[in-house]
Amino acid sequence: MSEVKIISTNTLSDKKYPLKEINFQKPGHGGRPVEHLHEIYYRPDAVAVLLVDYEESKLLLTTQFRVASYMNGNPSGDLIEACAGLIDKGETPEEAAKREALEETGFEVHDMKKVGAVYPSAGGVTEYLHLFIGRYDSKGEHAEGGGLESEGEYIELLEMPFEEAREKVLHGGFNDAKTLILLQHFFLQHKD
């Protein structure tokens, strides 16, 4: 591990989450110190959970508008995603995953298993994303879901058969990183 020296930190924006300019020094090739200037967006850690109905061989995904994808060429701005959200203060990642699943889909998640954790955009965002897969009962009782209007969430639910999701994974049909990671993990474990 090489030594990093923070030279300065400058807050560029402090609205919802801080955006800071970090000037740091780190040894480069041959050990010579090299100075770098990066903009870092300080976002809270988050969770994503893929809901699976093993008996019915289907997945429960969400569809919602993402303005960043729209601004970068996604014509509708809509993304198909696994349930996801930020970890609230005092919450464990597991608690947050269960809460987000209920808020977004109306379904309780059972037999949830953590499959990993990743930095979704390590070059400029601090967020650390905890990934889970859990069971839901598509024929069971459930709340309304759809996200929280107070958070500007307008979420549509999308149940997808395993085979359709597998084909979409194989042919580039998902463009949300967390969802693709979870689906790849799921299909590596369930090849039938």
TrEMBL record:
* InterPro entries referenced in this protein's UniProt entry, alphabetically: NDP_pyrophosphatase (IPR004385), NUDIX_hydrolase-like_dom_sf (IPR015797), NUDIX_hydrolase_CS (IPR020084), NUDIX_hydrolase_dom (IPR000086)
**UniProt motif Nudix box: location:** 85-107
So what does this thing catalyse?
A: GDP-alpha-D-mannose + H2O = alpha-D-mannose 1-phosphate + GMP + 2 H(+)
- Which residues are involved in binding Mg(2+) 2? E100, E104
Q: Which GO terms describe its cellular component?
A: cytosol
Q: Give the required cofactors.
A: Mg(2+)
Q: Which domain of life is it from?
A: Bacteria
* Alphabetized UniProt keyword annotations: Hydrolase, Magnesium, Metal-binding
Q: What PROSITE patterns is this protein classified in?
A: NUDIX, NUDIX_BOX
Mind listing the GO biological process terms from this record?
Answer: nucleoside phosphate metabolic process; ribose phosphate metabolic process
Q: Any idea which positions bind Mg(2+) 1? A: A84, E153
* NCBIfam families according to UniProt: nudix-type nucleoside diphosphatase, YffH/AdpP family
Task: Indicate the quaternary assembly.
Answer: Homodimer.
Q: Which family does it belong to?
A: Belongs to the Nudix hydrolase family. NudK subfamily.
Name of the molecule in the record: GDP-mannose pyrophosphatase
Native source organism of the sequence? Pedobacter quisquiliarum
